[in-house]
Amino acid sequence: MVEDAPVGEKVIWRGGPSQALNYNTFTICVLLVGVVALLPEIWDLFLANSKYAQYKDYYFLLSKAAFFVPFAWGTWSYLKIHCHRYELTTERLLEHNGVFSRTSDELELYRVKDITFVQPFSLRMFKCGNIILDTSDRSTPVVVLQAIENGRPVMNALRKYVDVMRTKKGVREID
Known about the structure:
The structure is a single chain. By secondary structure, the chain is an alpha+beta fold. The protein starts with 10 loop residues before the first strand and ends in a 6-residue tail after the last helix. It has helices at about 25-45, 55-65, 70-80, 120-125, 150-170, and strands spanning about 10-15, 85-90, 90-95, 105-110, 110-120, 130-135, 140-150. It is built from 5 helices and 7 strands. The chain is elongated and about 80 Å long. The strands form 2 sheets. A 4-stranded antiparallel beta sheet has the order 1-2-3-4. Strands 5-6-7 form a 3-stranded antiparallel beta sheet, covered by helices on one side. The chain has 2 domains: about 10-15 and about 85-170, Pleckstrin-homology domain (PH domain)/Phosphotyrosine-binding domain (PTB) (PH-domain like, Roll), CATH 2.30.29.30; about 25-80.
């Protein structure tokens, strides 16, 4: 059996970005479905007395197929956010991302230099915020945990364990 964390390392928090990130995409998809639903009537109005009236059945078939586009776009957007996961342990921050192919990245907490919590208005409406980590890690100098629900307690836990790990490893910030 595979363990989630090494011995002595405990999972503090698990979560992922809120679907609030998809608000604009979902709104556009709903509007597109409405437009696509009206396409047969639009074809009737404009093609009834034209030389293209003979292709009416193809236009109706095309309008039915057009329902697939907003549905596929909305589903893909949902899956991208749903499959993006964060895991905070007492020693590391792990990020798992990807729908079909998965990428996992880890950040040792002692490498975090600064933590910022940002709540743009669009996320504040959904009680979400972004946690931005300035790190000394070469591969990921800035890590952004996007659209975290009730992000302030997560940020406070992160700050606490960063301090614990910096003390444990004897890491000091030199300016």
